Amino acid sequence: MDLGISGKWALVCGASKGLGFGCAQALSREGVNVVIVARGLPALQEAAARLQADPQRPQAAKVEFVAADITSAEGRAAVFTHRKDYDIVVTNAGGPPPGSFRDWDRQAWIDALDANMLTPIELIKATVDGMAARGFGRIVNITSSAVKAPLALLGLSNGARSGLTGFVAGVARMTDVASRNVTINNLLPGPFDTDRLRKTMTEAARKAGQTLEQAMDARRKLGPAQRFGTPEEFGAICAFLCSQHAGYIVGQNILADGGTYPGTY
User: Fold this and answer.
1) Which of 110, 194, 217, 220 could lock onto 18 through a cystine, CB 3.0 to 4.6 A?
2) Which stretch is the leader sequence (predicted)?
């Protein structure tokens, strides 16, 4: 299927590895010009080199990068100095650390809100009107399956990402957004084989007196699919949400978790 987005410009955050890289890769393979952002320059340069060397990427598709902390005002300024207008924005930032709510002070909550709620809102604010004026825009926020099925150890993430979910539910349905072929949706990953999952499972393994691999194997078997997802298949879902064909998908929370969530709705 031709997704109809070749030649568009995409900003993909947290794209040096994991799910962000998977999204950048899928978009690049569709002929989208991607600007990838992450804090660590060496990892970002390596990611850009991998995208540029990808034989499935059309040669005309550009790969550019900005080393910046997207959760800071300075980092966002650097991104929009590099390029003002984007047709596609994929928001993504590392989740806050797991732990007990009894140990979190006010600053821990502020940091979580800055990274996982306020930063996506700032990126939406900076790009949505330009998208509407041009008659095309796709914003995909990478959140978490914990929005639907909260995990006790991920309280900071549960709270911040749920706040973003509520905000998106309203702004995505504004008529001066949706009627101009601009969509905003959330993509909720379940257990994908990423560094983030391994970091979370390391804590779980320690508490259970297990090795990391034992904990990972037990986690893998909890879901009906009996496996973890891959960044590549996550990226494919993201690319479709960013496509010309997804213009009627508005304000939705798309769960990708291999069937782990047991609910009907």
Assistant:
1) 194
2) none
